[in-house]
Automatic annotation (TrEMBL):
Signal peptide (from-to): 1-17
Positions of the RagB/SusD domain: 348-471
SusD-like N-terminal domain mapped to chain residues: 22-226
Entry keyword set: Cell outer membrane, Membrane, Signal
InterPro entries named among the record's database cross-references: SusD-like_N, SusD_RagB_dom, TPR-like_helical_dom_sf
Coiled-coil segments on the chain, per record: none
Origin superkingdom: Bacteria
Location of this chain's protein in the cell: Cell outer membrane
SUPFAM superfamilies, alphabetized: TPR-like (SSF48452)
Gene3D superfamilies: 1.25.40.390
CDD domains reported in the protein's UniProt record: SusD (cd08977)
Protein name stated in the entry: Membrane protein
Amino acid sequence: MKTKYIAVWVLAAGLMAGCGDKFLTVNPETALSSNNFFVSESDFKQAVNASYEPFRQMYNERAWVLEEMHSDNTYYARNILYGAVDPTENVADFAVPTANGVTANDNVLVQYRLNYRIIARTNQILALIDGVNFDAASKGNLKGQALYLRAFAYFDLVRLFGKVPLHLVPVTGRDDAALPLSSTEEIYAQIEKDAKEAITGLFDKTKQEAGRVTSGTAKMLLANLYITQKKWALAEPLLKEIVTSGHYALMPDYNDAFSFTATNKNNKESLFEIQYMEGSSGYNGNQIYRFIPSPITAAEIAPITGTSNPQQTSQESNNIPTPDLIAAYEDGDKRKDISIGYVTLSGSAVENKRYPYIKKYARPHSIHQNTGQNWPVYRYAEVLLFLAEALNEQGKPADAATYLNQVRTRAGLAASKAASQADMREAIFKERRVELAFENKRWFDLTRTGRVKEIIGAYGAKVKANPAAYYFPKGAVPPPNAFTVLDDYYGLPAVEAALTPHF
């Protein structure tokens, strides 16, 4: 039983805090548990590092499915040789089967569990760190990271599901493993509490280890929460603190806002990015291979990936830029050619055989299916756009224009002509779409602005009316249930529902 629970902690469950005094005081010398591991600063550093680990799988495999492809920015390109409808296709089609508030969709389940893995690991840290003596500044920074990561995981969960169980202490056994669903407001309140406390302990970017969250990152998360809640006056000062800190700036070239496979990581524009490392250590990603149109030959993929051993792929194609997004770029926008490339596939069943692909993540690397570029979560460009939004919603469109136009200037565009609050609101909404394309922002922008049914309803009608424009082979059409589930939240995972009486 002890071995079982130690293993479960490694995968992110609780520890055996409630199995009796004798059990707690007798530990095999060769076994690690919370009773004999968390005794030094080094131990907590290792535990904090482990709390970042689930992000690699999350951003490589699932977040873009649920938060970008579940929008009008990208779509799922069919390969008619694959007959079955898969869970990813259902997400792209707004056709996730849901009954009684739960779904069996695998993307939902994995994203849910990865977030709770982060939460369980940070709960263990937060439960014990104050009881161990070491340097106060280092302790504050490590505790701040744990608080941020827990808050971020709950922020992702609450925006995806609306209501989830709120675990704030380590799970000790079956009795406390299943909690009732907390309300959206209760989860928001906990995110706010954690983010505020994280800000006080975290180092700023000049002092923090590269790749770790900073006080600026925590301010951005808290501002994002306030923006989601429409608490514009609370978001504004946080965003201005980031702007005036001097720690962040727009990279002069939009292309350099994103890392390469081994360079330009955690640059001046970065507030938080998920760390990947090309090579055999197991820290690599392979997002571009999940996104690339297919079937693609080795000769066709070689210019995109730059590898020494290009290989053909024949899988379904995911996260393909839509004609709607492509049309959203203004003439002369430098971001368009940096973000989107085109490839002609000789083996495609689509009539013109030409597809767009996400070029901003197609960084040259050495080995097929092994990439090292980081994934951007928060960039300074979004700080400026959030600040513009917060100001505009307080009736200050002229002030908002100052920050909006910084983003537009880098893109090679003229200043926005929006003058009224309503026009500025739409200008910012459109600017976020192209500036932050493929960064998992679009779905949350649609839900927080209440525009899911309006925008996705119209988008779905266009897909159904002209499937060929959305990468369907000749004669193929969307499934009958496509664009029928236009809810702001996903159903909770059915597998988890089977383990709890609460949903």
